[in-house]
């Protein structure tokens, strides 16, 4: 069996197992699978609002997914997209709320730039730990996630807390500094376009520039890279910074377009989901966009199933986790086949 | 304000809370340490604990017995640990990806089935394990209550920490487990079955992580709520590093994490308006500094999270 054929067979098997598992879960929650799937697709394609919601939910996933993909290319295992997202969110809220005299559009640009830098610096800390001292970035990024989450908690209870309220959240950002909606009344916003531009930029960087080439070489073989005069440390640091910056942008966009203020828990784990998205996408920017939209569509569809039929929307987490586990486990399939052939 | 804090009563209550907060972290931390010393990094500890918590709740609810609940919790932990074991040992996959996928998968599974379990039923609360007072010792001022007026899980920990310390320091098997994590090729050459030892390490990881999760349900809360581990699995990872990969160190590190949490609760109880997050952040910063402090003499197992493939170069 040729490699390509085998890959297709594996993909089909994974898809089949996932569909069977999904149907089983729907039956277990006492719903009719046909009804459930109808509702699932009606939720996504049934009306403009739901359809646009897919792209709204995909936006932060694209940014963080791109971030993970860039980092994974050099072998820098950035699990810190969650924390970098929050650093972007925190700084963008500070910019949008802290400079009331400045025109809105300037504040938006400033928030994007500073949010990118903040996320980048957050990842840079881990990169320096790794490149200079050889400390595992996995652990450092996890620590930094929790520091960032607590920083947000601290901010919305102290210096950024809405003076008019008693809830731990910031004041509302004024209309002029918000990212414009594209198709009101849907929530689709300019952030999605920025995400697509970012994806194109990352693709160009990785495929068409010397830096992108060096990043890939470092990821494939650090020793070979060093022997050919490519600085491993430099490339890890650059890709980590870009990676964190992209995740930071997710936070900026979420604050300036969706939440319209800073509050806790707004990432809803998208920093961790991003790791899985990058994996499913094979660290390719186009794949990241496709996987993010697919993931968002599943969430939108599952929300409709939950509303209409009471099927818990946690079904999405189960199926996405399952798909990734199956991708990791596909060695079990091929190994058997090798044995049979022999 | 200060007089209110500097009292015996305050510190007694604080130490008690500290130990209670730390116990699940210690179980998970010891389990994680055992796996990491054998070279397997389990970021899915969060999922292991969550599975332990859910299975223990379901088991105790259906059987009406806390012991059966505990057993189910352990089995739930083992099941998740074994998924990670197969992926990272047999299939030599990226251990971080596997761990994160497991966390998402288990979060989904437990949330899904806890909804179904609770559907149409009234609010279910288990009667929890009761405390066992150890006469004499529990009257020690300040720490007596914290250490010797606890439940069976806490007492078992004391034994476990001593056993693990002796295991690593004094036994050939303990040395072999560390060799697997430090230099699997050398261990293999010396006749140690590397993969078998790693599977055993993941079994221990699942058991202890499962107990850590079950503790939250069976001792502290008496009920399962969605995502109830809320990051404790990740904190356990930090506790292992801060504890420099030793059982006693992990115990101490977990106490620091538990203490930060407890201190903030106690301070709020006496009315000190300090945001919880300021204290909650500290242990992570300490861990980062500890990592920097260990430069050059790192305690991290040499082959941590590097799959061992026999016969490859």
CATH class of chain B: Mainly Alpha
Sequence stretches where pLDDT stays below 50 over 5 or more residues of chain B? none
Mean pLDDT of chain B: 88
> What class, by secondary structure content of chain B?
mainly alpha
The largest sheet of chain A is: none
Organism (chain B): Frisingicoccus caecimuris
Protein name (chain B): Nucleoside ABC transporter membrane protein
Membrane topology (chain B): Multi-pass membrane protein
Transmembrane segments (chain B): 6-28, 40-60, 66-87, 99-117, 152-169, 199-222, 234-257, 278-296
Keywords:
heterodimer; A: 342 residues; mainly alpha; 13 helices; globular; disordered C terminus; B: 313 residues; ABC transporter involved in vitamin B12 uptake, BtuC; two-stranded antiparallel sheet; 2 strands; cell membrane (chain B); Nucleoside ABC transporter membrane protein (chain B); membrane (chain B)
């Amino acid at each position: 069996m040729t490699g390509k054929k085998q890959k297709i067979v594996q993909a089909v098997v994974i898809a089949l197992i996932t569909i069977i598992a999904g149907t089983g879960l729907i039956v277990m929650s006492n719903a009719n699978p046909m009804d459930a799937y109808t509702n699932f697709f009606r939720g996504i394609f049934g009306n403009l609002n739901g359809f646009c919601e897919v792209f709204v939910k995909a936006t932060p996933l694209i940014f963080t997914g791109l971030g993970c993909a860039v980092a994974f290319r050099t072998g820098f295992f950035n699990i810190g997209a969650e924390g970098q997202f929050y650093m972007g969110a925190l700084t963008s809220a500070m910019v949008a709320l802290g400079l009331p005299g400045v025109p809105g559009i300037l504040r938006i640009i400033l928030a994007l730039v500073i949010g990118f830098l903040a996320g980048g610096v957050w990842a840079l800390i881990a990169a320096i730990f790794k490149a200079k001292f050889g400390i595992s970035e996995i652990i450092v990024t996890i620590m930094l996630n929790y520091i960032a989450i607590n920083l947000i908690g601290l901010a919305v209870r102290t210096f950024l807390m809405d003076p008019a309220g008693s809830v731990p959240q910031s004041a509302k950002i004024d209309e002029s500094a918000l990212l414009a909606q594209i198709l009101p009344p849907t929530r689709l916003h300019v952030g999605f376009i920025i995400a697509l531009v970012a994806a194109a930029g990352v693709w160009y960087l990785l495929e068409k520039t010397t830096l992108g080439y060096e990043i890939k070489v470092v990821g494939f073989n650090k020793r070979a890279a060093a022997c050919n005069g490519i600085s491993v440390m430099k490339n890890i640091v650059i890709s980590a910074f870009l990676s964190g910056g992209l995740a930071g942008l997710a936070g900026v966009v979420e604050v300036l377009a969706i939440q319209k203020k800073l509050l806790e828990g707004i990432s809803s784990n998208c920093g961790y989901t991003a790791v899985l998205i990058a994996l499913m996408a094979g660290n390719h920017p186009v794949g990241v966009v496709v996987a993010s939209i697919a993931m968002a569509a599943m969430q939108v569809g599952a929300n409709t199933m939950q509303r209409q039929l009471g099927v818990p929307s946690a079904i999405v987490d189960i199926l996405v986790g399952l798909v990734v586990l199956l991708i990791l486990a596909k060695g079990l399939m091929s190994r058997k086949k090798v044995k049979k052939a022999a | 304000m200060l007089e209110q804090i500097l009292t015996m009563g305050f510190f007694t209550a604080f130490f008690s809370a500290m130990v209670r907060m730390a116990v699940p972290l210690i179980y998970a931390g010891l389990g994680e340490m055992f796996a990491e010393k054998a070279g397997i990094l389990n970021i899915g500890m969060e999922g292991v604990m969550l599975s332990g918590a859910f299975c223990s709740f379901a088991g105790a609810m259906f059987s009406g017995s806390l012991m059966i609940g505990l057993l189910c919790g352990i089995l739930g932990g083992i099941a998740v640990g074994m998924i990670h074991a197969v992926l990272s040992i047999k299939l030599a996959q990226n251990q971080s990806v596997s761990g994160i996928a497991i966390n998402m998968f288990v979060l989904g599974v437990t949330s899904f089935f806890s909804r179904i379990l609770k559907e149409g039923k009234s609010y279910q609360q288990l009667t929890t394990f009761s405390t066992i007072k150890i006469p004499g010792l529990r009257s020690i001022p300040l720490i007596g209550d914290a250490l010797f007026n606890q439940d069976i899980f806490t007492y078992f920990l004391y034994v476990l920490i001593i056993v693990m310390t002796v295991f690593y320091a004094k036994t050939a098997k303990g040395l072999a487990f560390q060799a697997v994590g430090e230099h699997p090729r050398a261990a293999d050459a010396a006749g140690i079955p590397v993969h078998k030892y790693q599977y055993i390490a993941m079994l221990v990881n699942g058991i202890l992580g499962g107990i850590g999760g079950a503790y939250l349900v069976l001792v502290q809360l008496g009920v399962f709520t969605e995502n109830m581990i809320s990051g404790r699995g990740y904190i356990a990872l930090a506790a292992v590093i801060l504890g420099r990969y030793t059982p006693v160190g992990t115990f101490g590190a977990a106490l620091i994490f538990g203490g930060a949490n407890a201190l903030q609760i106690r301070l709020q109880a006496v009315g000190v308006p300090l945001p919880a997050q300021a204290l909650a952040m500290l242990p992570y910063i300490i861990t980062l500094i500890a990592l920097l402090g260990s430069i050059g003499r790192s305690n991290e197992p040499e082959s941590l999270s590097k799959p061992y493939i026999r016969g490859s170069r």
